[in-house]
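Predict the 3D structure for this chain.
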Amino acid sequence: MSTILVASDGPWVRDQVKSAFVAPGQDVIEATRGQDVRDLVKAREPDLVILDLQIGNMGGIAVAIDLHLEASADRLSHVPILLLLDREADRFLAKRASADAELVKPVDASTLRRAAKRILGVTVGSTQ
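Done. Predicted structure below.
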């Protein structure tokens, strides 16, 4: 069983991620606000966090930095982060936020699954 947390204020982004990881033993948790991610990570301990660059008033970069700071202070377990970017130029920001991987939107289900597999080293997603 693997758990993936996706944070985006865009329903289409959350739906895209959910559809990529539909499979027995997969659980996808959704957040619509960046400030909710830390509490969800603490409560649910996901295997992977997928952050949209744009998440209302606390975007993916700020959330990624927050998660890393909390983990470095031992207030939160480390969790791998995949950032979904708006454009190629945003890769610089993803590197500065120490994301484990980044993809430029739009992305398809197989690209999301491959990225998750690279990060986690396991097979995740649809069995279709």
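The chain has one domain: 2-120.
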